[in-house]
Amino acid sequence: MAEALNRIVVIGAGFGGLEVAMRLGGSAAQVTVVDQRNHHLFQPLLYQVATALLATSEIAWPIRHLLRRYKNIDVLLGTVVGVDKDAKTVQLEDGAMLPFDELVIATGARHAYFGHDEWEPFAPGLKTLEDATTLRRRILTAFERAEREADPVRRAAWLTFVIVGGGPTGVELAGTIAELARNTLPGDFRKFDPADARVLLVEAGPRVLAAFRPELSDYAKKALGKLGVEVMTGQAVTGLDAGRVVLGGEAIAAETVIWAAGVQASPAATWLGVAPADRAGRVKVEPDLSVPGYPDIFVIGDTAMVMSEGKPVPGVAPAAKQQGRHVGTTLLSRLTGERTPRPFRYRDQGSLATIGRRAAVVDFGWIRFRGGFAWWMWGIAHIFFLIGVRNRLAVALSWLWIHTTGTRGARLITQRDPEARDR
Amino acid sequence: MAEALNRIVVIGAGFGGLEVAMRLGGSAAQVTVVDQRNHHLFQPLLYQVATALLATSEIAWPIRHLLRRYKNIDVLLGTVVGVDKDAKTVQLEDGAMLPFDELVIATGARHAYFGHDEWEPFAPGLKTLEDATTLRRRILTAFERAEREADPVRRAAWLTFVIVGGGPTGVELAGTIAELARNTLPGDFRKFDPADARVLLVEAGPRVLAAFRPELSDYAKKALGKLGVEVMTGQAVTGLDAGRVVLGGEAIAAETVIWAAGVQASPAATWLGVAPADRAGRVKVEPDLSVPGYPDIFVIGDTAMVMSEGKPVPGVAPAAKQQGRHVGTTLLSRLTGERTPRPFRYRDQGSLATIGRRAAVVDFGWIRFRGGFAWWMWGIAHIFFLIGVRNRLAVALSWLWIHTTGTRGARLITQRDPEARDR
């Protein structure tokens, strides 16, 4: 019977899924990791790819290469379309079925448009490498269009960048786009000054970086202002179409709108046939992260709705990693026959966000930092968590280069824009 | 009248066009460089992006950044659709017209399928960054598919790579794909040994690297054989469709076929309303590189059919650069009123090609090298010709890393394959 207990399927190789797999590496379990991408992505630096600071290969690595040393782990490139929780199989898009004894769903989240999915084409989000290269293309193309545009009103629309959502991603995007316009691009264009570009950060709530202490939100707002970002809090987007965003009653002409507000969990709840626990579609799990009634199926990371010490665990990378480690340990101990459920407890390691390449805010709860020192803490922390010596070196060199020269290495417009011809 | 003589339009910012622009930088001419991409591409290393050795941003740079210091040069991102050689205007796709006093067409070439354009979807070529990331996706996906495939015959088809064309690009692709399969990937897969992959290099002519001396062709063939590449000379492709390539009468099941045979010049001849000079569609030019009857319109690089000392100038990067420099100098001297046409003379600087990451062939005409020493010469030459300190450093580090560890940093499957769902 030990044999039959061994087949563990992990869906998704993000921060959570990868952690589960690594914990089970070299054990007696027979592990299969399924992902629809061939790469693990370091999402916290994705905005730097979108703003031409880093190259795609500096923040992503082939999953099978990361797990190559564990001979008990198979990696499959495939798209999951369903889970049969009673027959214990995972269905892939191509018709293949993966039987499992234990299943971990770690499929993350996409951006959410709060019932306005029709906005997506006009305000893309940032979750995948393709999202990042698409955004990079749009941002860089906007400046190219401005150079071609003779009408000053139309030109201003090309030079207006609206970022919706004042969380860390929104703040980081707004800061780096402002720096791109004010520090990197001047001198490259003849017909206009890139420094005239408007960067608007729109937040529906009362302050940016709502997960941080109010004084850090205030600091972030001031630091963004210094970079030339117009921060608009208490402003919800009420309309969005090509070249136009509506805030309250006012329409702003902007050719580049980026969506950094809200997340929508992957369709794990649908696969499992359970009611989603919240508007984001997450799955409510037991304290040990298993699905109620199904002790062999676990849901972790952004897809899971977990309580820890009476508070919901936030959808951040460290939380996903901790959950992955927890479930990995649970599964390991089950291999030895131990089946007592162990409750997951979230350890808040603090929050970090950068504002451009000089300032950051760091909130550890018991102590807070801001400004240049916080930026260095942020940089060192992120380089430390990158996978592999080479990537750490590459990212450190890229940042050093950008820091000292102000030029960005990855300013490439790739992919053809299917819309470009029509507009 | 000096004012009216000044407007120079350069179409294309490849090796030739960029050289023209740089020569005219800081002069009294008012120069506009038009390109349909925002980046200049170091094409000789494109195969290394296709085979996951280098990242896209290591071999491409924004054109306007390269030319930023020259205030007399405008850079436009735009697609040329026609030239009115009598009214002296260039038409862009969006309806804009660029008037010129002098025009330089340096629009390069695409791959040619010799009247079989229907083969292109099944055997993509390698000319742009998108081509390279598409090829990278196809090559890496083939190994992923092999891991998923239970049928040994179908699996063998996923593990068969056919490169059509035995010129430098074909030889370099075949060598690096063989190394990817034999050195980089083993250990990453569970269901098969990547070293079992077949890499076939198919050449219609009697030998590979036909532009080199026969003894270097022989050496290249042997070196490829050592890497596990099957070299098939005297074999023309007679049929090609999804998963199948026909050589003579024999059909080979291969899911990845890459086209590295033959080039087709850009449609400059059509724009100019002249008969193309050869099957590749190139424009025959005068000894000074101007179009017959139109002394103010020049065609250079892969688009031009030029004779030098009785022999046609080859379609290689150094020839395009020399032509660009020649036309740039001609246009500079015209600014001072000098209008005597100066004939272009090609200086052959030798030919280089690598076979994997240990061997190369170098042919200077008067002296030839092969093997490891030639590889180092090739590497140093290419790093030297890369633009910018940072890129030289990045490429040198990437190569050093790959050389010492055997891992490749850019093994990312990006873009979704629209065909993948159907097959």
Structural notes for this entry:
Two copies of one chain form a homodimer. Chain A has 423 residues and is of the alpha/beta class. Chain A has helices spanning 15-24, 46-50, 63-66, 129-148, 152-158, 168-184, 214-226, 268-272, 317-335, 372-385, 389-405, and strands at 7-11, 30-35, 39-41, 60-62, 73-77, 80-84, 89-92, 97-99, 102-105, 109-111, 160-164, 198-203, 229-233, 237-241, 244-247, 250-253, 256-259, 263-265, 283-284, 290-291, 294-299, 304-305, 307-308, 311-312, 351-355, 359-363, 368-371. A six-stranded mixed β-sheet of chain A has the order 5-2-1-9-21-20, with helices on one face. The longest helix of chain A has 20 residues, at 129-148. Chain A is globular. Residues 417-423 of chain A have low confidence and may be disordered. Chains A and B meet through strand 4, strand 5, helix 4 and helix 11 of A and strand 4, strand 5, helix 4 and helix 11 of B.
